[in-house]
Design goal:
It contains eleven helices and 16 strands. The protein is α+β, with helices and mostly antiparallel strands and about 375 residues long.
Length: about 375
């Protein structure tokens, strides 16, 4: 995840109440279950020291939230009387968690909200297509419509019939070429890493034939069409699954790059001491984190979020005017530093890295 999107939160004063909870709405008693769940989590936060004004702000956010469709999670982060993060998660967390602490609990967001894969979705028929493009932030929708007549072959024989059949084939090919040109334009505009082709079998095959794109960029799937009676939910789920696969592959490629750079003693370091040194120099491109290993460790921090170290003296020397120097959880402190320095974060419980953290550097130290 690009943690720079959380820069304002990372710079905000604490302490923070952070909550990750199952917000699924997929049973008849979902509303009652949600009320009981929040009541228990609220009590836990109160026991951890969260003040009433913060709990009241969270109460309001929970009660005002629209219930999701099916399985989902939610993250809420509040400070003082304000809720600063109120975000639906695509999947429920493995367990509901609460934390009241000086720093916000940001690291789970990197695993629940991985970097969005820019992609283009095409739903085609013989007359054209509906196109959906996503650049990682904004989704745009447009339609391409070509010639409408003739589009359907008819039975019969003779010279006139053959000429009509040829005209139908020429029209379908012409329309497919128009769609393909629009798709290629969108791929360039959003820097798409995936193109999903749906719709009528012959139409999408014709579009794919006209596309001048790498085969591994384009995937055809069933389940959607421009006519009524198609299963749009199934198609949407298939698209989300394909995007998630690309996201997982993207993270795997980053981890592989990290290991390669580490092996050649290149643009990578591991362990808390070297990673915190790189963060203080704003020299981290991507943090690579094993949450289970990193979670219980502590580092020194100050009021300046990028000033973080395993050594108290290093923080005091570099930041003498930003308030007290304190020890905080390494996962909170490193994620906060990543947010203010514009670093990405990749999380995986199976990543083998010294002390649970490594970094791909921006340049050699």
């Amino acid at each position: 995840m690009d943690m720079s999107k959380l820069r304002d939160l990372a710079l905000a004063p604490g302490p923070f109440a952070s909550v990750y909870l199952d917000a699924s709405h997929d049973t008849e008693d979902a509303v009652k279950v949600a009320e009981l769940r929040w009541r228990g989590l609220r009590d836990r936060l109160a026991d951890e020291g969260a003040p009433e004004e913060t709990l009241a702000a969270l109460d309001e956010a929970v009660s005002a939230a629209e219930p999701p469709a099916g399985k989902a999670g939610r993250v809420l982060i509040a400070a003082g009387s304000s809720v600063v993060v109120n975000q639906t998660l695509p999947v429920p967390p493995p367990a509901d968690t609460t934390r009241f602490s000086l720093l916000p609990d940001l690291l789970p967001l990197a695993s629940y909200l991985p970097p969005p894969v820019p992609h283009v979705v095409v739903v085609a028929d013989s007359s054209g297509a509906d196109l959906h493009s996503f650049d990682g932030q904004v989704e745009l929708v447009e339609s391409v419509r070509g010639k409408e007549h003739p589009l359907h072959k008819v039975g019969g024989g003779g010279w006139a019939h053959k000429r009509l059949q040829q005209r139908v084939e020429d029209t379908v090919k012409h329309n497919a070429k128009q769609v393909a040109d629009a798709v290629e334009r969108l791929v360039d505009e959003v820097h798409a890493e995936l193109v999903v082709l749906g719709g009528e079998v012959q139409a999408r095959s014709a579009v794919r034939h006209e596309l001048g794109l790498d085969d591994d960029l384009v995937v055809e799937i069933e389940g959607a069409g421009l006519a009524g009676g198609t299963d749009e939910e199934e198609f949407d789920n298939a698209v989300r699954a394909l995007v998630a696969q690309r996201q997982q592959q993207h993270d795997a490629d980053i981890v592989e790059r990290f290991r390669a750079e580490l092996g050649r003693e290149g643009l990578a370091v591991e362990g808390l001491a070297q990673v915190t040194d790189a963060l203080r120099q704003a020299n981290v491109d991507t943090l690579v984190v094993n949450t289970d290993v990193l979670a219980d460790q502590l580092v020194w921090t100050s009021g300046q979020p990028d000033q973080v170290s395993v050594d108290e003296a290093s923080v005091r020397q570099s930041d003498v005017e930003s308030g007290p120097v304190e020890r905080n959880r390494a996962d909170d402190a490193l994620t906060r530093a990543a947010a203010v320095t514009g670093a990405n974060v990749v999380v995986g419980d199976d990543i083998k890295v010294l002390q649970g953290v490594g970094a791909i550097l921006r340049h050699r130290p």
